[in-house]
């Protein structure tokens, strides 16, 4: 799933405004960042296979270290431990924030099961693989993924949490940018190579983080 992960991150900005949007976005996409690194190192494998699914030309040959259910739980625990131990002056609801970060990391697996065809493993590459196949339909993919993003931004703008003043036009702008990225990814030509996929993803992640930092606003003091 693409911008659906970003939509999930924005939803939890409404749940816990003390968490920066950038932190939420990193947590929601942490598994994909690992996947890019593992593919670049040759630890996991993917192929460009146009038509493999209607909305995504990538054939995920092997990626249990980043995308299996077992791995998602392990990564969620490790990221949660790092976040909990990170020095901070604001310890209010710190345990709640840590649990949200952990959930977002693990939720990547759940959302990918919805989007992928049955290629998302439970454990190793030879274990049972799941996938509901949202990517078999381009209209459904765009509707669900962009819809999730729209719901998250709508919740923050129309129903802002206490002590948080959303920057409405900035959130709307990054929503449009992310939606355009999704449309280009789904409707555009397949990438020329796996290297192009990894380089594009590694380039996009810092840009997305910077955009969320720009759009976010610190919580007002009580």
Characteristics:
222 residues; mainly alpha; two-stranded antiparallel sheet; two-stranded antiparallel ribbon; 8 helices; 4 strands
Descriptive overview:
This protein has 222 residues and is mainly alpha-helical. The chain has one domain. Helix content is 63%, strand content 6%. The protein is built from 8 helices and 4 strands, in the order H-H-E-E-H-H-H-E-E-H-H-H. It has helices spanning 3-15, 21-41, 64-67, 69-85, 94-115, 138-158, 168-187, 194-215; strands spanning 45-48, 58-62, 120-121, 129-130. Strands 1-2 form a two-stranded antiparallel ribbon. Strands 3-4 form a two-stranded antiparallel ribbon. Strand 3 (120-121) and strand 4 (129-130) form a beta hairpin. Helix 4 packs antiparallel against helix 5 (94-115). The radius of gyration is 17 Å and the shape is globular.
Beta-strand content estimate: 5-15%
- The secondary-structure element order is HHEEHHHEEHHH
Lateral arrangement of strands in the main beta sheet:
1-2
Report the average pLDDT across residues: 92
Give the distance, in angstroms, between the N- and C-terminal Cα atoms: 37 Å
Helix percent reads 55-70%
How large is the count of helical segments?
8
What radius of gyration results from the CA coordinates?
A: 17 Å
| Largest β sheet strand count, sense and barrel closure | 2 strands, antiparallel
Oligomer: single chain
Structural class: mainly alpha
Whole-number tally of structural domains: 1
Stretches where pLDDT is under 50 for at least 5 consecutive residues are none
Q: Care to count the β-strands?
A: 4
The backbone outline, from C-alpha atoms, is: globular
């Amino acid at each position: 799933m693409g911008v659906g992960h970003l939509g999930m991150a924005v939803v939890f900005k409404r749940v816990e405004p003390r968490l920066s949007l950038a932190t939420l976005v990193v947590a929601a996409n942490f598994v994909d960042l690992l996947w890019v690194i593992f593919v670049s190192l040759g630890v996991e494998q993917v192929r460009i296979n146009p038509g493999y699914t209607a909305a995504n030309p990538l054939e995920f040959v092997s990626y249990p270290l980043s995308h299996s259910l077992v791995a998602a739980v392990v990564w969620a625990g490790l990221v949660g431990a790092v976040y909990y131990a990170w020095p901070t002056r604001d310890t209010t609801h710190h345990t709640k924030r840590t649990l949200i970060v952990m959930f977002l990391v693990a939720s990547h697996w759940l959302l990918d099961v919805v989007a992928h065809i049955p290629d998302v493993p439970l454990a190793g590459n030879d274990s049972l693989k799941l996938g509901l196949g949202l990517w078999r339909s381009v209209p459904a993919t765009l509707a669900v993924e962009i819809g999730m993003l729209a719901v998250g931004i709508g919740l923050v703008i129309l129903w802002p949490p206490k002590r948080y003043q959303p920057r409405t036009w900035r959130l709307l702008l990054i929503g449009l940018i992310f939606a355009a990225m999704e449309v280009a990814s789904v409707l555009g030509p397949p990438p020329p190579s796996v290297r192009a996929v990894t380089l594009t993803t590694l380039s996009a992640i810092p840009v997305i983080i910077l955009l969320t930092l720009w759009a976010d606003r610190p919580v007002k003091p009580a």
